[in-house]
Input
Amino acid sequence: MHLHMAGAGLTRPHRNMKRHSPSPHQIPVIVVAQDGLAGQVVEQLNAIPGQPLEASASDDTRVALHALRKGETSGVYAQHNRTVSINDAVPLDPGDARGLSAFYLVVGWAVGGYLLAAMLGVAKGSRPATLSHRCRTPATPMPRTQMCATGRISKVVRCDHPHVRAVPAHPA
Output
């Protein structure tokens, strides 16, 4: 049997692996054989206790290797002259033996972005998120006044925002 495995195949975390106790569980593999031997091998692989593999059969090595390169399966077992060899069909980078460099890069970006946003927020200071921080009571009284709900006359608050009209100031 000739064995093709993705570089990250059985070592990368699979979607069904438990995080607290990582062990392989239903990792998809394809068994390629021309005769009825593929069905027997699939049954034996699926009968392993704990179901570490989820084997399926195929009769075309090219289709199975294409599925391996697309990430649809983690391994391909192909029958050829009953010798076993391992070929790394999708190798990892030489300095990244476990395939985790991209993970740490993305985590670094996320943490860095969060820290940058926090620093910008602290540097800018806290300000209200409403339009009222642009409104102010004028230093000189305006000619118009309005009656408040209490019946007292109060100053009119002037606002620089073009879509906000004069609003009566709240009496103290």
User: Anything to note?
Assistant: The beta strands are 2-6, 27-32, 53-58, 75-78, 86-90, 135-136, 146-147, 153-154, 156-159, 167-168. Residues 1-14, 142-149 have pLDDT under 50 and may be disordered. The chain has three helices and ten strands. The chain has two domains: 2-93, 131-168.
